[in-house]
Input
Amino acid sequence: MRIYLGVDAGASKTFALAASASGRVIGFGQAGCGNHQSAGLEPALHEIAAACRQALGKQRASYASFCLAGADLPPDFAMLRPAVEALDIAATIDLRNDAWAAMRAGTTRHWGAVVICGSGINAAVRAPDGREFILPSLGALSGDWGGGSDIATACLGAVARAWDGRAPATALTDLVLRQFNEPHYEALIESLYTERIPRHATKVVVPLVFQAALDGDQVAQAIIVQAGSEIGHTAGSLLARLGLQCEPYEVVTGGSVFKGVGPLLLDAATLALHRQAPRAGFTRAVIEPVVGALLLAIELHRQPIAPLMWACLRATLPKQLVIRIP
Output
């Protein structure tokens, strides 16, 4: 029996989903961090293998698509490919960045674009003829801006500039001081400098920026508009890179930043996108990225997703993998 396997491995969790050639789900697995950049290669492989074995049982997949966070540059692929092949999970494997799973989970076709905003920002585009491009997604090193870490840094910078008079007062000051239980800005900056408040912990201020923007704070609104503009500009630029800026492309959104309250982020992103790609539009996935990885496994084996196969897959998906099905 031909078995397809999709794997979506990130910094927080790893999902694996197996299905038959008819589209019927035959197993689902879940494990921990599968990002070698976060956990190290061997621990990440252990979690990936655990999720796959839960999904497959004692069977071996005919074809598998491994969509892995941390698969960014050629050195990553040179290390990851032989390591994944050595797991002996599937007869044939495809290895790619996890952005592609998120894209496929949100598009109605096998092509499209995606922008993911979690701690950082990543984006990718795939043309109908198979051409692809993905950002290196290495933060400031590759010119990236717009993820949660950037919004948090902008928020703290705005509070600092309001305190010393270089910028207007902002409601973010009280919100941030309350969040970190600090009496005044001097105490806050000392806690940040001495890392009593760890750098990774500052991302908790991101929802505060969205809330302050929704409540009318212009400083917070400017940060959200800047992030949205970068998101839309990034998506439009990638479409233009492949000469697709005049096509009605679906741009999938993913990541925690898009869960922020209020319409301002997506409004700013849409405006920036339409300035470069007027017929493109943002869309949200209704299924988890691991389902996209499974669809890639099927399509990359040159089997189209027929209506009956898709209906069977939807009918047998585990409930935790359904975000919203219209």
In short: The chain has a mean pLDDT of 93. The chain has two domains: 3-97+286-321, 109-285. The first strand starts at residue 3 and ends at 9. The longest helix spans residues 218-241.
